[in-house]
């Protein structure tokens, strides 16, 4: 059995378990690992790292045993499988074209397009890429840390840094991490290609330091176009997109959390067109609740798109 088959077996075991699996259970259930425990542990650690590099949401949970608490592992199906976005055929084609023009290196974009019902692999004969955005291991590790609220540590320009990560941004050809530097007790930005060595993740859920104030970077819907059209918008977001919104719209305010998993957010909006684009990016999972004039603007804009 080769490495790929073993890793596919590991992924299947972690996806289809009702509780976290301990390393010893994985050793018993997944074919292809060495019998020797030390050799198994080395191979298992390499496989875990490979799964993380592929962006697979590997969860680690403490499980109680007679010998005390031991780490258990699983992959949440809700996080791994794509939600049904209800895309129309022309929308799937548009996504496919975008992936052909902008290649995210190290991301299984082709697999995602297949799950959405899209066309075959990008990079076929005749296709032309406008740009390739590098997605190295640091990006995937930091994305995992942000999702899990895990503190991170790394060497940056020869110094050890300890950071509670907030968000990743791609600007002017480089990836940047914005977060709270616990050693310097202040927010900092780090250019990822200047990180030396690996990014180490701490305990999930332990990065709790709140933002001390605005990061100085405005979101598109906050760029002023007309001061007379400044609004505080309230938006309902379905459960299918609530987790995404919590992680990617952190500078908004959560004003309601509903039993069905949906949430309501408040936005400070000065650029209505950019706000409209954000709402449309979530398709029918987002609804503008107030103010009435902003809700009516969305209705009128959508109505103008319908052929008469």
Characteristics:
308 residues, alpha+beta, Arc Repressor Mutant, subunit A, SH3 type barrels, 4 domains
Protein architecture, described:
- It is a single chain.
- The chain has four domains: 3-79, Winged helix-like DNA-binding domain superfamily/Winged helix DNA-binding domain (Arc Repressor Mutant, subunit A); 82-134, no CATH class; 137-201, SH3 type barrels; 220-305, Alpha-Beta Plaits (2-Layer Sandwich).
- The protein contains ten helices and 14 strands.
- The protein has helices at residues 3-15, 23-29, 37-53, 77-80, 89-101, 109-115, 137-148, 239-248, 272-281, 292-305; strands at residues 21-22, 58-65, 68-75, 102-105, 131-134, 152-156, 159-171, 174-181, 186-191, 195-201, 231-237, 253-257, 263-269, 286-290.
- Strands 9-8-7-6-10 form a five-stranded antiparallel beta sheet, covered by helices on one side. It has a four-stranded antiparallel beta sheet with strand order 12-13-11-14.
- β7 (159-171) and β8 (174-181) form a beta hairpin.
- It is globular.
SS class: alpha+beta
Give me the CATH fold name of the largest domain. Answer: Alpha-Beta Plaits
Q: Averaged pLDDT, please?
A: 77
Poorly predicted sequence stretches spanning 5 or more consecutive residues: 106-111, 113-127, 212-216
Strand content: 25-35%
In the CATH hierarchy, what is the class of the largest domain? Alpha Beta
Q: How would the global form be characterised?
A: globular
β-strand number:
14
Biggest sheet, spatial arrangement of strands: 9-8-7-6-10
Rg calculated over all Cα atoms: 22 Å
Query: How many domains make up the coordinates?
Result: 4
Q: How far is the N terminus from the C terminus?
A: 61 Å
Number of separate helices: 10
Instruction: Summarize the amount of helix as a percent range.
Output: 25-40%
Order of helices and strands: HEHHEEHHEHEHEEEEEEHEEHEH
Give a quick account of the main beta sheet: strands, pairing sense, barrel closure.
5 strands, antiparallel
């Amino acid at each position: 059995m080769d490495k790929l088959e073993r890793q596919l077996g590991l992924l299947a075991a972690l996806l289809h378990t009702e509780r976290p699996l301990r390393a010893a259970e994985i050793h018993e259930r997944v074919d292809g690992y060495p019998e020797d425990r030390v050799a198994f542990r080395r191979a298992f650690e390499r496989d875990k790292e490979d799964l993380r590099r592929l962006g697979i949401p590997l969860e680690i949970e403490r499980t109680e045993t007679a010998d005390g608490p031991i780490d258990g592992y699983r992959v949440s199906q809700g996080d791994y499988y794509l939600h049904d976005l209800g895309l129309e055929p022309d929308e799937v084609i548009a996504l496919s074209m975008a992936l052909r023009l902008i290649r995210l290196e190290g991301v299984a974009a082709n697999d995602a397009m297949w799950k959405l019902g899209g066309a075959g692999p990008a990079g076929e004969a005749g296709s032309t890429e406008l740009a390739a955005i590098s997605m190295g291991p640091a990006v995937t590790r930091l994305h995992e840390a942000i999702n899990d609220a895990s503190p991170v540590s790394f060497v940056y320009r020869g110094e050890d840094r300890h950071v509670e990560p907030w968000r990743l941004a791609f600007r002017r050809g480089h990836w940047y991490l914005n977060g709270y530097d616990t050693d310097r007790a202040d927010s900092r930005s780090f250019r990822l290609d200047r990180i030396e060595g690996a990014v180490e993740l701490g305990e999930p859920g332990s990065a709790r330091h709140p933002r001390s104030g605005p990061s100085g970077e405005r979101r598109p819907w906050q760029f002023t176009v007309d001061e007379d059209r400044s609004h505080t918008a309230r938006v309902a977001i379905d459960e299918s997109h609530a987790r995404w919104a919590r992680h990617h719209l952190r500078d908004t305010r959560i004003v309601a959390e509903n039993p069905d998993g949906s949430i309501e957010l408040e936005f400070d909006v000065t650029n209505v067109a950019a706000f409209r684009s954000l709402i449309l990016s979530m398709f029918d999972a987002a609804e503008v609740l107030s103010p009435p004039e902003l809700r009516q603007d969305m209705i009128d804009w959508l109505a103008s798109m319908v052929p008469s």
